[in-house]
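Hello,

Following up on my earlier ticket. Below are the two sequence lines again, exactly as submitted.
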Amino acid sequence: MASTQTGTDQAHGAAEAGHASAAGMPQLEFSTFPNQVFWLLVTLAVIYFILSRVALPRIAAVLSERQGTITHDLAAAEELKRKAEDAREAHDKALADARAEAHRIVEGAKAAMQADLDDATARADAEIAARVAESERAIAGIRAGAVENAGLVAREVTQEIIFALTGHPADGRTVSAAVNARMKG
Amino acid sequence: MSNIFFWAMMVLVIVSGALFAPEHAGLAIHPMDQFEVRPLFGHGDIGVFTPTNVTLWMALAVLGVIGLLVLGTRRRSVVPGRAQSVAELVYGFVYRMVEDVAGKDAVKFFPYIMTLFLFILFANVLGLIPMSFTTTSHIAVTAVLAALVFVTVTVVGFVKNGAGFLGLFWVSSAPLPLRPVLAVIELISYFVRPVSHSIRLAGNVMAGHAVLKVFAGFAGALGVFAFLPVFAITAVYALEVLVAFIQAYVFTILTCVYLKDALHPSH
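Thanks for your patience. The regenerated structure is below:
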């Protein structure tokens, strides 16, 4: 509609007058449509060309490369984690082995000591038994001696008693038989 | 801190309003002048191939696309810099949109949809520069964009599905007597699509820019109190930045929705 221009330019003034007929909306100035459409199509074609030839493949490549890098790094991290796990397992195994070995040695020592102890005990028992047997033998000998002596004493005493009572020496064989019979009873 | 900044700006605005207030305060509101198509050189008639401000700002949009997507990614770093991050963000954003909305088999249309999105986005954002020209505020431009989508979708629909594409208009889930009625409604809505598709974009952009100019005209008329419209302009400008992105997004996602209809016409 009304122009800010003060009519210094004749052609521009004419253009302004043209706008007035288009209800003040340059959007409805149909004479400019072919121009706008032409430049729009050129612009779209240029942008499409740039995007499809340069920009989009490049960005897609960068994105897939990043994805690849991430995947690769993750795989590497997984691998390292697995290695650490293996190392830990090996360490655990070594520890368990050492522990078992120590246990085995302790058991062996214990068993050897037990065997020594058993051996010593057995020998001591045997010695004790031998000594006991010997002592018993000695006691039996002493006892037999004592019985024999008692028999002797009894016979002599009996003969002396008989001699003192009867005035006759007693028959040795009869006395012996009588004493033996008594002592058995 | 931000409080101090706010008051400093306030004082600056009021002082400059007092200093630069026009001697002949008056309403000089020409909100539509900014949309005028002018030849870049001279004042001749506008032919088909005349370089105009349309040419200039579309070329700047192309340069913006090159700057972001080509120069921004020239190092191809695995760990991206700032420009490359933004480029990858836009790429991923549109790619996911195409994949999620239109389906996996629509991915081959991704460069085409990306072209539309980037052109509209850069045209909208560049148009927010003061004194610039907004190419997407012109119905001629958005109508061509929408018509391209409409023709593409229709052709793809028939090529992919043959006559089966007409199943888009035959709502098989509705009761049988209703289907012819629904078919008429669906058919009308199908042909209204490019109209709403184009007018939505141009209308939003044009309205916002015109509002900015109207407030600017108030600022010229109010003298010392010009700071009031200036604040309003600031608020509307922020809204317009939002609209610039949202309209690019809306145009693109609707394109994806239409494309989904063409590829999978069954409801």
